[in-house]
Amino acid sequence: MLTQLSLLADLAAELRRADFPLVERWQTVDQWFQRRTSRTSLQAEVSSYLRGLSPEAAATVADRSRETTTHFAWCLLDERADPFSFWLHEYKPQRDWRRGYADSVHNHRYHFCTTILRGGYEHERYDATVDPDSQLISSTELRRRTDCPAGTAGAMLAHEFHRIPRAADNTLTLLVKSRPVSPWSLSYDPQTQTGHRHVPVETRLGELTERI
Question: Could you tell me if residue 212 is inside a domain?
Answer without folding.
Answer: no
